[in-house]
Amino acid sequence: MPSLFQTAIAQANAGTDLGEDQTSQLIDAMLRGEAEEHDVANLLLALREKGESVSELVGAARAMRRHMTQIPHSHAVLLDTCGTGGSGSGTFNISTAVAIVAAAAGVAVAKHGNRKATSLSGSADVLEVLGVPIESESELVAERLDRHGICFCFAAKLHPAMRHVIGVRRQLGVKTLFNLLGPLCNPAGATHQLLGTSTPDAQRMVAAAIGSLGTTRSFVVHAADGQDEVSLEGATHVIDVRDAEAVRYDWTPTDFGLLPATRDALAAANPHESAAIIQRIFAGEPGPCRDAVLAGTAAALVLVGVSDTVADGVKRAAETIDSNAAKEKLASLAHL
């Protein structure tokens, strides 16, 4: 009799999507360390070749959530700005800076992230340079969230079961289903997500998955210039997911009241350069890097209902930075 994995591999090779429960069982087996490496590799490659489906993404996310270390909290509104990565844009860590400014503006934030994989600087990498302890135990992460209204959820620490598949993923060296799962598995259970995606297909899939998994409201964004962020180079395509209903619209630099900015103006070659840019922004330096953070924060503030429009959100974000509140919030995140 074919095994669970052999059946699923044959199904995927035939071009048939796996069911949600079926995928969940497969990922459970992987994360318990019960699956053979060659079965894991063959299944991930078969799904990649077929093209991953929403049912597979949702099933995998449900399984990963069962295995993650959860961060307890009492916040009715909790924001995450974790995206899928993979855009290859080479910018500084915009979403990490946005998370800090949003927290300084009074929004509770549980920033989920990891070390760099496809980018030049992951959120964990830049925060480590900025002096934030990223390897904290879950109790300390929860304490930071409770005391300071912001915490960093280090994926490598809070998803310990992923150790069973990391070797296979490294050997394969290509994007697989797991590359889309990070933003769907926040250990603190974020109620609101500003979630950047690297392709239109990823945006569509992730938005549909969030609709099934459930958040209070999420903005799933993909920029026309390819960035997995709110962009000021052109249009940012938004899928606004609320109560499992999805609405599409675009933002442009004019909506934010900001000047256009190219990706080249936002470049950072490594975590140290990225950290230096963030520190200069928080010290009040004007320019396109600050504007990118203002735009992202404005989107976050609209998302959680603090601002009515992104233009109003930009003003609130600018006031937060100029009052040194963002700089102070970063310092509080670095010290318990």
UniProtKB/TrEMBL annotation:
E.C. number(s) listed in UniProt? 2.4.2.18
* Ligand binding (5-phospho-alpha-D-ribose 1-diphosphate): 83, 86-87, 91, 93-96, 111-119, 123
UniProt record, GO biological process: L-tryptophan biosynthetic process
Give the co-factor note.
Binds 2 magnesium ions per monomer.
Q: Which gene encodes it?
A: trpD
List the Pfam families.
Answer: Glycos_trans_3N, Glycos_transf_3
Residue ranges of the Glycosyl transferase family domain?
A: 77-326
Record: residues binding Mg(2+) 1: 95, 229
Spell out the GO cellular component terms annotated for this protein, sorted alphabetically and separated by semicolons.
Answer: cytosol
Q: Which cofactor does it need?
A: Mg(2+)
The family annotation for this protein states: Belongs to the anthranilate phosphoribosyltransferase family.
Positions bound to anthranilate 1: 83, 114
Which parts of the sequence bind anthranilate 2? 169
Carries keyword NAD? no
| MF (Gene Ontology) | anthranilate phosphoribosyltransferase activity; magnesium ion binding
Top enzyme class, one word, equals transferase
Protein name per Swiss-Prot or TrEMBL: Anthranilate phosphoribosyltransferase
NCBIfam families named in the record: trpD
- Reaction catalysed by this chain? N-(5-phospho-beta-D-ribosyl)anthranilate + diphosphate = 5-phospho-alpha-D-ribose 1-diphosphate + anthranilate
| Domain Glycosyl transferase family 3 N-terminal intervals | 8-68
Ligand binding (Mg(2+) 2): 228-229
